[in-house]
Specification:
- With 108 residues, this protein is α+β, with helices and mostly antiparallel strands.
- It has one domain.
- 19% of the residues lie in helices and 25% in strands.
- It is built from one helix and three strands.
- The protein has one helix at residues 77-96; strands at residues 11-20, 35-43, 51-58.
- A three-stranded antiparallel sheet has the order 1-2-3, with helices on one face.
- The two termini are 27 Å apart.
């Protein structure tokens, strides 16, 4: 994914390596999943430097957090999977926000 139209700017590559349901990568016929894992690489235009880092997200349903007398209202499947992908993207953006244009960590 180019970060801009300028060819001199760095490129971000996102490689999804694992999609699983409770750790099992053999998904059921419904194709349900609750885990996403991948590697993000941040490459300079020269191919020198850059950095890569893993990103792992998991969605869990914690029924024990429901107060007595309340009923749980689960999200729709569309909302669930949108939250999974958005959560993955958010973690990527957080990490990229801590890096300079050369892909090195920003020090304060």
């Amino acid at each position: 994914v180019p970060l801009s139209e300028n060819a001199a700017d760095p490129t971000v590559r996102i490689d999804i390596r694992k999609i699983a349901l409770n750790g099992d990568t053999v998904l059921p016929g419904s194709m349900e999943f609750n885990e996403l894992e991948g590697v993000v690489s941040f490459q300079t235009n020269t191919g020198e430097g850059g950095q890569s880092f893993p990103v792992k997200v998991v969605a869990v349903m914690d029924d024990s957090a429901i107060p007595v007398g309340y009923d749980a209202v689960p999200p729709s499947l569309d909302d669930f999977y949108k939250a999974m992908v958005d959560g993955f993207a958010m973690k990527v953006a957080e990490r990229l926000g801590t890096m300079n244009e050369a892909g090195a960590p920003i020090s304060n």
